[in-house]
Amino acid sequence: MKQYDVVFLGSGHAAWHAALTLKQSGKQVAIVEKDTIAGTCTNYGCNAKILLEGPYEVLEEAKQYPNIIDSHNLEVNWKNLMRYKEKVINPMSETLTSMFEQQEIDVIMGKG
User: Fold this and answer.
1) Which one in 9, 12, 43, 53 has a CA-CA gap of 20 to 30 Å to 34?
2) What domain count does the chain have?
3) Please, how many CA atoms are within 13 Å of residue 25, restricted to the half-sphere of its CB?
4) In a domain, 1, yes or no
């Protein structure tokens, strides 16, 4: 059985940053992930929310300039926004998985 100095539960921002730092300092590191690599914040929460919220914030800002910007005709194309979100967010899991492999950080899919 392989021995680890540190095992992280989840592969979110805090875990992968710490795992990389510890691995580079010579520690044996593993990450246990029950869902998609990169964690909840990246895949479903914070990052995705910020990305989806951006265009709506622009619409609200446009309303601050009623005689300059015709905000009545502005709208968000939800289908295209979701495509954009997938284009930006989806590769993050693959990128992190590749980084873990290159750094020899073991990823164990399951619950810890």
Assistant:
1) 53
2) 1
3) 8
4) no
